[in-house]
Backbone:
């Protein structure tokens, strides 16, 4: 196999309404399984995936946050949250269920230009 | 009161199948009647019998089948929408020369007129959009 | 008088479309991703005082919003959803 | 059969990206077949269904405008276009392929309150 | 150059199947190679053999089947996404005790690793979102 | 340098998300409903001069926009789409 590529998985959609959140996370974990350099970015409604105290039992779904601990287990490089998206939703880091790197648009622009493969979800 | 439901979203692409299912149960629990549940657009995917979701996820089509049979609900899948999207019963499989069929038990393929008729004959038509 | 359900987050056009045409005496029920509007002051800013707004409890709880719901928004369970549809003359769904 | 109800079919989505436009129009025609009082409203991206000179042969789809003449044939009561949606898209009546009633939000509010059944698409 | 394509949208719910098909043809016509086409999320519905659209509409799954066989393309349908949504081959039908199968000719069910591998092994991975 | 494809109309969040993070020297290709942005002055207002913007011809023609495309936006056919993906280092899809 070639040298590892860098993968960035971008999550722009909310959990529960569609299966996008779960299926995006499965891709992130799979890139890590392949020993690639993997990072994950949450922006727009994707931010909502990270909210504390989610409990979807009454809508008979699995907790979208249940697989987040796997990101660390599989050595996912970094988890980013776009500052503008957080602010637009009246939310801050204390509302999120795990430590993340809040990143401004300028740094985000740099981050994105340095990825080999960007997968949006 | 007499309710009808229209469902436009497919499992996994939309929460409509979940919300509509909980709503349908609440209609019955509240003592109302369900005249018809009409599956349209991508909602026709609720009626497949070939889905095998992981054990810790709800089996949405199977859950509808049980609900429909338990409560003797008229569950109509729009035939034009279903043919386009590959949801067919044995009769249509024969007509279109397809090697198999996948419509789950309890569902009926019929025309779009059944949606309009449901709107006319029911006190409330509640739509669950994609 | 109409019960309007909204199932999309404020990022989508469904809410603003509904607010442009909703009449006095009608009500909104936030369901699915629509409940994110229940924690965000902007979309209903000018209309909160005139409009009755409900939100579906199961969706609020699923999304971790229970502690954040704005005052003036009433939560209902699925049977409450059914009762609202019976109470209003008709139901219109925005998605 | 009871007295006819009044149906309003609302089109809020663009043609071609999804099948929503075609399947909404099928419902409008079917309500007319059932001799109901039917009207159709275009708002938001639904406006785009009415643009002149659509030609989707290169994307191997049918022209979404092809069934519009059927609306008249089936005695559909009225075709409305929301003024705010038209203006927001930098479009005017001359851009549309058939005569419509452009309607402001105030009149729209009245129209909607007087329908028995409103079906959104 | 070596291309791979990822397709996330179902026919009728998304234009992705149309655009991706035209793009795939243009890749070949431009003298490039296609390493793999990967169908994920609702895109798995591209692989049903039970769709019977009206004669004046494109038969999207049949069109893929012909393209895949004509150009000997590796066309992979994510097995986890497909099982959830009711797209299965005979082997999975047997495993899950389903009465029939619906995977069209030319498509293979396989794991999500095939998407990541396509990203690693191709010069370009182009995604067609829902 | 990245080729960004956008397949949603300006009513959706995809375009503004892309514009927030796109870098200098990168380009946008409007496809599917993304081409509606090619007739609307607003979304690219401030960035048109810095950014190279393409639009897929088949989608422009399908939607009746051929006479309305803003100056500065270049149309390409499907082979032109392939050529652009080859020309840029990678492709990112916004949807």
Residues:
């Amino acid at each position: 196999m070639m040298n590892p590529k860098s993968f960035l998985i971008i999550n722009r959609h909310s959990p529960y309404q569609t299966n996008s959140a779960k299926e995006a996370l499965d891709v992130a974990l799979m890139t890590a399984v392949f020993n690639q350099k993997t990072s994950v970015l949450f922006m727009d409604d994707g931010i909502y995936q990270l909210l504390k105290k989610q409990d979807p039992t009454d809508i008979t779904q699995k907790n979208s946050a249940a697989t987040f601990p796997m990101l660390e287990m599989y050595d996912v490089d970094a988890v980013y949250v776009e500052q503008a998206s957080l602010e637009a939703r009246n939310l801050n880091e204390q509302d999120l269920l795990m430590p993340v790197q809040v990143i401004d648009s300028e740094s985000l622009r740099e981050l994105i230009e340095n990825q080999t493969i960007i997968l949006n979800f | 009161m007499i309710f009808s439901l229209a469902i436009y979203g497919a499992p996994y692409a939309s929460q409509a199948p979940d919300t509509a299912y909980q709503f349908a149960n609440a209609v019955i629990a509240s003592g109302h009647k369900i005249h018809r549940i009409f599956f349209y657009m991508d909602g026709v995917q609720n009626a497949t019998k070939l889905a095998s979701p992981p054990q810790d996820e709800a089996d949405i089509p199977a859950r509808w089948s049980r609900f429909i049979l338990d409560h003797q609900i008229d569950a109509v899948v729009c035939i034009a929408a279903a043919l386009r999207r590959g949801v067919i019963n044995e009769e249509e499989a024969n007509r279109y020369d397809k090697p198999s069929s996948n419509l789950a038990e309890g569902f009926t393929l019929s025309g779009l007129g059944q949606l309009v008729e449901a709107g006319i004959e029911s006190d409330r038509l509640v739509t669950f959009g994609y | 008088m109409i019960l309007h359900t909204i199932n999309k987050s404020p990022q989508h056009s469904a809410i603003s479309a509904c607010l442009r045409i909703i009449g006095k005496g009608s009500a909104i029920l936030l369901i699915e991703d629509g409940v994110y509007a229940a924690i965000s002051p902007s979309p209903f800013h000018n209309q909160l005082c005139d409009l009755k707004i409900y939100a579906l409890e199961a969706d609020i709880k699923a999304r971790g919003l229970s502690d954040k719901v704005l005052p003036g928004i009433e939560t209902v369970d699925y049977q409450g959803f059914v009762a609202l549809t019976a109470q209003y003359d008709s139901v219109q769904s925005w998605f």
In short: The longest helix of chain D spans residues 20-33. Residues 2 and 36 of chain D are 10 Å apart (CA to CA).
